[in-house]
Amino acid sequence: MAQLCIALVAGEASGDILGAGLMRALKSRHPDIRFIGVGGPLMQAEGLDSYFPMERLAVMGLVEVLGRLRELLKRRKALIQTLMAEKPDVFIGIDAPDFTLNIELKLRQVGIKTVHYVSPSVWAWRQKRVLKIREGCDLMLTLLPFEAKFYEEQGVPVRFVGHPLADTIDLTCDRNAARAQLGLSDGPLVALMPGSRGGEVGRLGALFLDAAQRLQALVPGVRFVSPCANALRREQLEQMLVGRDLPVTLLDGQSHQALAACDAVLIASGTATLEALLFKRPMVVAYRLAPLTYWILKRLVKSPYVSLPNLLAQRLLVPELLQDAATPEALAETLAPLLADGRGQTDSFDQIHRTLRRDASNQAAEAVLALLENR
User: What pathway is this protein said to act in by its record (predicted)?
Assistant: First the structure.
């Protein structure tokens, strides 16, 4: 077998995890591969020669991106030139669509095969981006089945590979063991998960704590656990808890342990809703945006649902309380019955988990090598 040269670019920690899994699966199928591009510590541990630190690409939010735009554009231009000179057998852009889709477009124009791993949410908004994807991408690898359906309809070669989280999270988890591990006793327990970013916790934190106080009147003896994404989020919540008499345990990270331990979840829309589904915990999804952002998105978003469980079920499986509908009373009243019996939701969660559990890294590796067979 001739040596393969595979270029990969990941822009943040979640992409580093996906990239490392894909690299491992590729190496087990093809003994001689050289990996170049940009990735984090996990991808480097699998043998990636990273041209610069991945941290330089990890920027969130419009304002932050503008401050770093010149550097990002300069790095991208240099990266395209380097990769054109290296002529890898395939380029794989992992997530980070605003950075990687352009690279794919330029490389494909000079005859390099291109793959994009993790679909941007084109099915929900900015649907015109699919034209750029069709032009720049030999193969799209999606984590979710409804995404693959969208690309098929748009004439983009696609493969649904399953979701790595569905592979790593067990089909059943032991609630009692998780509680013992966290030092939490018996009785009704709700996980409060207002998001991982400062802005989200700023908009949702106090609302979730108000809802928790209301819930105490509806569910005697209820207690709460809240995993904090980092020290700053913990500080934010600690300040919001001042002057409240709430039985809440704050954790550092440990979101999976919190989900395993709880009976139900009050949660911000985002990837965490998929984790709650995979842990089979009934949930109420809430979200608030800045009023102007919400007004704009309402006009742009084509999808009837915002949360992944509902998008995956293709129906209203979990309650979504958005913007003005997200009041402490409404959240508490929607949560209370789920603590008594959440099977209406969780019976479907198991089926969805099995659909997503496809050994994503190996599926992705097979799809990439199949693309290269006729090189």
Answer: Bacterial outer membrane biogenesis; LPS lipid A biosynthesis
